[in-house]
From TrEMBL:
Pfam families: Lectin_C (PF00059). This is C-type lectin domain-containing protein. It comes from the Eukaryota. Residues 98-163 form the C-type lectin domain. Residues 1-18 form the signal peptide. InterPro entries: C-type_lectin-like, C-type_lectin-like/link_sf, C-type_lectin_CS, CTDL_fold. Keywords: Disulfide bond, Signal.
Amino acid sequence: MIVVRIIVLMFICKDVTSMPCLSNESKEDFDDSRIALKDMETHLRNTVKKLENGFKNITASIQDQLGVVKDALSNVGEKVKKVDSDFQVLGKDFLSKHYWIGLTDLNEGEYRWNFDQTIVSYLPWRSGYGKLGNGYDCVAMLKSNNGQWIDYTCNTKYYYICESNFCF
Ligand SMILES: [Ca+2]
């Protein structure tokens, strides 16, 4: 048993002693490599930190912008609801009232919009209206007859529709 241990020990010693020793030059290369690897590790660690911070900033910026967009979207949604609601109210009113629509022919037969004095291109007259020379200078939309138009005396008390430029 002792003989086997000695033989094994001899083989190990032979292998250990047969390994090449590091020369001073190799040792310097090894040290330089270790220093370079340490520098690279530091550089990579700093780069990761910078990227993480940059990502956090970008994420915060995107979240801010997303918040602004969400607010705007909510605002638009509320305005759409309001417009829908207003149109529903108007729709009911159109069924029960006549409206002046801001169209006149002060120059007989030449119907112009009061808002900008452009000549009208669409005239859905009720049968018997819109003729020249009748002396009626203001145009109203009827509550019935599919909203057809009549020219009538301007001092008649009807509701009215105004055109306006508006912004949200
Ligand atoms: Ca007229």
